[in-house]
């Protein structure tokens, strides 16, 4: 296999603008990138930016600087649904939001599922079949079922979950 550099999809920044998460859609037509500004940018298969949407905190009304607030969370992971029409966003403020991004570019981005959790999300994966799998800072691996908005613990340990793979 030979790899070929094509181009940068995001311009170089003068400040620290860390890329928090990147995900390819299963149909290979969409790339989602989220930087430290908490905005998910969507690119087509050629690297052209087609859409973007801001993420939301778990509760924007609570302004506790140590726990939650409008800018007090970090995106920890992105995962596309098997049909590439939804994207799960795992956040450090103990929640996973599922946004409907649609099949075509420019469709309205709406939250269709919310999964409040007991701990901060560390990683996320969405297999081709089954629920969203979420790794947490408290050592639990949870399954988030989009059909009934419920989650269950699959595995528990005493150390945080570093990564997940499908």
From TrEMBL:
Record bears the keyword Repeat: yes
Record's subcellular location: Cell projection, Cilium
BP term (GO), one: intraciliary transport
A UniProt-annotated Pfam family: WD40
Keywords noted in UniProt: Cell projection, Cilium, Developmental protein, Repeat, TPR repeat, WD repeat
Cellular compartments per GO CC: axoneme; ciliary basal body; intraciliary transport particle B
InterPro entries for this protein: WD40/YVTN_repeat-like_dom_sf, WD40_repeat_dom_sf, WD40_rpt
Membrane spanning stretches: none
SUPFAM superfamilies, sorted: WD40 repeat-like
SMART domains the record matches: WD40
Principal place of residence: other
Family: Belongs to the IFT172 family.
Protein name: Intraflagellar transport protein 172 homolog
Organism per entry: Ladona fulva
Lineage start: Eukaryota, Metazoa, Ecdysozoa, Arthropoda, Hexapoda
């Amino acid at each position: 296999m030979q790899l070929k550099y094509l181009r940068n999809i995001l311009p170089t920044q003068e400040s620290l603008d860390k890329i928090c998460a990147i995900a390819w859609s299963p149909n290979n037509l969409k790339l989602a990138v989220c930087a430290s500004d908490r905005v998910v940018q969507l690119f087509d298969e050629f690297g052209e930016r087609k859409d973007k949407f801001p993420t939301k905190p778990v509760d924007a009304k609570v302004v506790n600087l140590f726990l939650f607030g409008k800018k007090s969370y970090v995106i920890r992971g992105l995962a596309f649904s098997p049909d590439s029409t939804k994207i799960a966003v795992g956040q450090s403020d103990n929640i996973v939001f599922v946004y409907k991004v649609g099949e075509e570019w420019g469709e309205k981005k709406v939250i269709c599922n919310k999964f409040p959790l007991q701990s901060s999300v560390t990683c996320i994966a969405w297999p081709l079949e089954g629920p969203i799998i979420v790794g947490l800072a408290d050592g639990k691996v949870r399954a988030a079922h989009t059909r009934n908005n419920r989650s269950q613990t699959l595995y528990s340990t005493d150390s945080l979950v570093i990564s997940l793979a499908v």
